[in-house]
Write a sequence for this structure.
């Protein structure tokens, strides 16, 4: 059976990461998130702290969007975001480390962010799956798990290689085996695409056009 509108909404990080987004835009996002019944809002760290979120969780990004930041800078950014009220941190891995097989270093930078943002803060690791080969996807997911992450996430939505794919989600889900969550994000604009990601194994969705996706689902 297809999931209901309410069930999918509770999987959504309602996202606004456009560099030009204003405080007014973010306030509108929060209001819409509460109306739609989504799980969280995801905004840039400079927009924290947020007010008026109610039961909606607050997520932010770290090392975004390139991932090409020093590990200690990512850790400091994560710590500041937690101090500013973030419940969840979505960090971008260093793709240079991933594409050159330096998986111990990938694990090390994720561990640094994990130490700066300890549980119960939820740590998601953006692996930019469209820019990696299958073996690299597996290895980075394994590094994320070894470093104590809670989720692996497909994409920033900003990389020219593309966003989420059902193939990547399925591969990531098989690799983490239910021990971590899998967030599909980047280019998911239709109900059909969202359902495809869920069927592939996604347990969280990063959406900017959330209303349009939910409108195609039964109550």
């Amino acid at each position: 059976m297809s999931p209901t509108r309410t069930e999918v909404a509770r999987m959504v990080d309602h996202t606004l990461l456009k560099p030009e987004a204003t405080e007014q835009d973010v306030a509108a996002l929060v209001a819409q998130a509460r109306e739609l019944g989504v799980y969280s809002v995801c905004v840039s760290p400079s927009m924290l702290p947020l007010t008026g979120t109610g039961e909606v969780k607050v997520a932010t990004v770290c090392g975004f969007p390139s991932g090409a930041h020093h590990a200690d800078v990512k850790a400091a950014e994560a710590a500041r975001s937690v101090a500013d009220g973030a419940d969840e941190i979505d960090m971008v891995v260093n793709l240079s480390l991933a594409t050159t097989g330096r998986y111990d270093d990938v694990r090390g930078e994720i561990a640094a962010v994990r130490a700066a943002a300890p549980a119960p803060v939820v740590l998601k690791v953006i692996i930019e799956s469209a820019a990696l080969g299958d073996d690299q996807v597996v290895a980075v997911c394994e590094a994320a798990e070894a470093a104590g992450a809670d989720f692996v996430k497909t994409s920033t939505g900003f990389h020219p290689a593309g966003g989420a794919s059902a193939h990547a989600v399925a591969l990531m889900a098989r690799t983490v085996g239910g021990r971590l969550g899998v967030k599909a994000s980047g280019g998911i604009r239709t109900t059909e695409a969202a359902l495809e990601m869920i069927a592939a194994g996604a347990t969280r969705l990063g959406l900017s056009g959330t209303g349009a996706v939910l409108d195609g689902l039964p109550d």
The chain has one domain: 26-214.
